[in-house]
Amino acid sequence: MSGQIPIVRTLAGLRDITAGWRREGARIAVVPTMGALHEGHLSLVRAALAEADRVIVTLFVNPRQFNSPADLAAYPRTEESDAARLAPLGTDLLYAPDADQVYPEGFATTVSVAGVSEGLCGAFRPGHFDGVATVVAKLFLQTGADCAFFGEKDFQQLHVVRRMARDLDIPIEVIACPTVREPDGLALSSRNARLSPAERAIAPKLAQILISTANRLDAGASAALTLERAREAILTAGFRDVEYLEMRAEADLSPLDVFDRPARLLVAAWLGDTRLIDNVEVPPAVRPGKPSVTPRD
Ligand code: PAF
To answer: 7-177: what fold?
Structure first.
């Protein structure tokens, strides 16, 4: 399908449309985004279109998940080009709510998910996951979707959202999709656009170091020593700082000192003024016909 995608800005307008879909018995999917769409987002939309009869993409730059007003102000707003990228895929609706449709006057509720929100990005971005859990809970309830699609790139966010939906009895299936990468392994992110050419050349080393570290851990190397070496390798590659590099259990993100169950290596590191995050499975993922770092098509 091509042409234009309908854009709805009010909750009442959204509910009018979804009520009609419900009467037809449609299965509804939601892909929550903050816009500035790249191929990673589009892969979520394609997965949603394959799974559901109707697909809503939400676009809301959520002020509650930013740690600084400057970061919020600098966040790219590209609704027109986002809508143009979504239309040809066959997306049914872009829900780009006005701010008061999400946070009306007097809004006083915060959804806070203990455990999985703590540590990793949660330790360096205080309040971030409260903001994410609150807005995603609202988007789940407003859309009434049957399933929702999230990228594994934001692996901690995925766990936070899953826990929140389970704990609040929101009847939605949270479906995870693999990280989409550039051919050199760099995980797609709207932040990549901020990298200088020299930084862009260094950036893929983060994924490469993660993969080789995952292989070493899988081969039985000591976790403490291997992670320490990986941290040094990231700094030697040209990163300014490593906020964290940790091995966590795949199932519940609990910290692991030894590799004794399916795990994830998760990292956040600064390259100049850009903060990059990434994660890989341990043992490294082998997807049929694909290398363990899945490059972009
Ligand atoms: O991953 C994002 O883009 C945001 O955190 C989300 C899930 C859309 C909530 O604002």
So the answer is: Rossmann fold (3.40.50)
